[in-house]
Amino acid sequence: MAAKKAIIKKTAAKPAAPVAAPKKMPAIKEKYTKSAILAEISANTELSKKQVTAVFDELNNLIARHVKKGGVGEFTLPGLLKIKTVKKPASKARKGVPNPFRPGEVMDVAAKPASTKIKVLPLKGLKELV
Known about the structure:
Elements: H1 34-44, H2 49-67, E1 74-77, E2 81-88, E3 94-98, E4 106-109, E5 115-122, H3 124-129
Antiparallel strand pairs: 1-2, 2-5, 3-4
Helix pairs in contact: 1-2
C-alpha cells in the first residue's frame, strides 16, 4: 500500500483591516448628574435626549427582568460589568456572643431571614479604563 500524503494548500494571508484607535477623550473633573449624562450622550451621538432616555429606561427594564425573582439572576453589559444575584441563607439567633466592640461583654444576635443581594462585578473592559 502506498501511503498518500495530504496536500495542504497555503493561502496568502490577507492583510488585517486597520482598526481605528479610540479617540483620546479628556478626563471629566466633576461628577455628572443624570441630565448631564443624557445631554453628553445625545451630543456625542445622533440621538435626541428623548431617545437616549428611552434607551436608558429600556436598559433598566431589561436588567430588572434578568435579576428579579424567577429571572435568570445574571445580566452582563458586554465589556463593562456583570450584575448577578446572590442568595444569602437565613441565620439563626445566637445568645452569649462576645461583643467585638466591648471586650469582656456578651451580647445576643438576632435571627435574620434569607435574602437575595445584588452583586456588581467589573469586567476586563472596565478594569482597563482605570
